[in-house]
């Protein structure tokens, strides 16, 4: 079974079909890559993400928590550009990446993995006519969408446990348990996929 960060609920976002959520994410990513309207699009999408978190029942606190969990992604995005791009473009690109991370988080929080996989299968089914296995691509995409928030959740749990024990031992005291947990989950996933012939 693929580990999931899904939170049950009955909000409009929970009821929305998975395929529409995925199409929204793809279309948003394409629109953000276009040169025109970049700033106004970001200006609309950023508060829209916050509103979506609140209206879906996750709350503004969860919105801020997701931003905090993405801090290393933000830092890497800034460092990769700050010395080569004008600062307005660096800010715009960083916010674009963050908005996409937040949208992906909304999808994983409001959609069970099984529905996510079914939605991807629907979207990718035309590839079967070309001899491409849409089920394998959908599975990889579903795993990828869940991987980053899952690793972040594991990191938070390990660091909280580390802090509860006094926080001694430096970075290795929590990095090693995090690595062990991640490898264990990867092995379980690989075994499950192998058992299903994937």
From TrEMBL:
<dbReference type="InterPro" id="IPR003339">
    <property type="entry name" value="ABC/ECF_trnsptr_transmembrane"/>
</dbReference>
<dbReference type="GO" id="GO:0005886">
    <property type="term" value="C:plasma membrane"/>
</dbReference>
<feature type="transmembrane region" description="Helical">
    <location>
        <begin position="137"/>
        <end position="155"/>
    </location>
</feature>
<keyword id="KW-1133">Transmembrane helix</keyword>
<feature type="transmembrane region" description="Helical">
    <location>
        <begin position="12"/>
        <end position="32"/>
    </location>
</feature>
<dbReference type="Pfam" id="PF02361">
    <property type="entry name" value="CbiQ"/>
</dbReference>
<feature type="transmembrane region" description="Helical">
    <location>
        <begin position="39"/>
        <end position="60"/>
    </location>
</feature>
<keyword id="KW-0812">Transmembrane</keyword>
<feature type="transmembrane region" description="Helical">
    <location>
        <begin position="97"/>
        <end position="117"/>
    </location>
</feature>
<feature type="transmembrane region" description="Helical">
    <location>
        <begin position="66"/>
        <end position="85"/>
    </location>
</feature>
<protein>
    <submittedName>
        <fullName>Cobalt transport protein</fullName>
    </submittedName>
</protein>
<keyword id="KW-0472">Membrane</keyword>
């Amino acid at each position: 079974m693929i580990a999931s960060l899904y939170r049950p609920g009955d909000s409009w976002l929970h009821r929305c079909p998975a395929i529409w959520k995925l199409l929204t994410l793809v279309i948003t990513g394409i629109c953000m890559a276009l040169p025109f309207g970049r700033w106004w699009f970001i200006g609309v999408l950023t508060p829209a993400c916050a509103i979506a978190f609140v209206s879906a029942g996750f709350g503004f606190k969860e919105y801020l928590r997701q931003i905090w969990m993405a801090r290393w992604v933000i830092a890497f995005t800034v460092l990769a550009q700050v010395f080569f791009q004008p600062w307005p473009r660096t800010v715009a690109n960083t916010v674009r990446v963050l908005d996409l991370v937040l949208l992906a988080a909304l999808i994983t929080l409001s959609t069970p993995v099984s529905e996510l996989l079914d939605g991807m299968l629907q979207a990718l089914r035309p590839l079967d006519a070309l001899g491409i296995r849409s089920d394998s691509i959908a599975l990889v995409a579903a795993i990828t969408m869940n991987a980053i928030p899952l690793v972040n959740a594991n990191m938070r749990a390990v660091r909280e446990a580390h802090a509860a024990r006094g926080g001694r031992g430096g970075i290795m005291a929590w990095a090693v348990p995090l690595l062990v947990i991640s490898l264990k989950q990867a092995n379980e996933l690989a075994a499950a996929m192998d058992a299903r012939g994937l």
